[in-house]
Amino acid sequence: MSPARQISRDVFPFLRVHTDGTVERYAGTDSVPAGFDPETGVLSKDIVISSSTNLSARIYRPKSVPEGRKIPVVVYYHGGAFIVASPAEPMYHHGLNRLVREAEVVAVSVDYRLAPENPLPAAYEDSWAALEWLAGGGGKVDEPWLREYADFERVFLAGDSAGANIIHHLALRRCRSSLAVKIHGLVMIHPYFWGKDPIGLEKADGARSNEGCDDPYINPFVGGAPPSAEELGCQRVAIFVAERDILCDRGKAYYRSLARSEGQNGKVRVELVETKGEDHIFHLFNPDCEAAAGLFDSWASFINHE
């Protein structure tokens, strides 16, 4: 290796950064094209949201929607620790096809910019820009599938890991803004929250227990009062955790904080769904297992519950 291209940071197993700025990714780089999925009967296509930042999304809909019927909208933010993955990665593409089939929704999977080339908060700003685009003058966004099929009274934000972290911050920001999009509910799957002081399963992981931080982006319990359900500005919140996931205890703590405030105002319903014996985003890594079927079923039921 030449002196001009030494390793400056090795983020195993995701990527390696070199001193000349080159980034080598080892995960999340595979992709599949949009189109018709014969297994689920779902159509998808790639769209551009903002040419100035190259912000794009992959949008999904069932092949057949009865004429005049409007269906819920799920805006999805993928995981990957803010540094890997995309909507085109096979496990995310197949997962969204499955959700659209089971929940009968229109889904918009946002392709936000990744670090380290685009340091945080770029991912949050792109994610917010996607919501602004969706608002599009009160649901008049210039996208045929949304215009024809979307019920803008039933918009859900959903995400896994880093994506679940993102929707927490989006919900707070939307509630404090005048953005003309109503968020009916949040689906947070194995949310990526962390902190300086390890808790629960984190204490047993020597490699990561000393790497926490209390940046407000990562730790929602710093910088003021703990998060409340009312601050999220929606009617319902579902938090999914997995028993063996090192992030499980943070997700439970987040749920307890919201549940306490739920009891105080009675306006928001908060649910916790724990999958026993499974680890982080198991439903994407092992989509054919019984537990994954249960997760997708719970997710679809949450969206379609009146």
Automatic annotation (TrEMBL):
Stored PANTHER family: ARYLACETAMIDE DEACETYLASE (PTHR23024), CARBOXYLESTERASE 2-RELATED (PTHR23024:SF577)
Alphabetical list of InterPro entries matching this protein: AB_hydrolase_3 (IPR013094), AB_hydrolase_fold (IPR029058), Carboxylest/Gibb_receptor (IPR050466)
Q: Which organism is it from?
A: Linum tenue
Q: Name one GO molecular function term.
A: hydrolase activity
Q: Which Pfam families match?
A: Abhydrolase_3 (PF07859)
Which domain of life does this protein belong to? Eukaryota
Task: Tell me the Gene3D superfamilies matching this sequence.
Answer: alpha/beta hydrolase (3.40.50.1820)
Please report the name of this protein according to its UniProt entry: Alpha/beta hydrolase fold-3 domain-containing protein
Q: Which family is annotated? A: Belongs to the 'GDXG' lipolytic enzyme family.
Task: Domain (Alpha/beta hydrolase fold-3): give its ranges.
Answer: 74-283
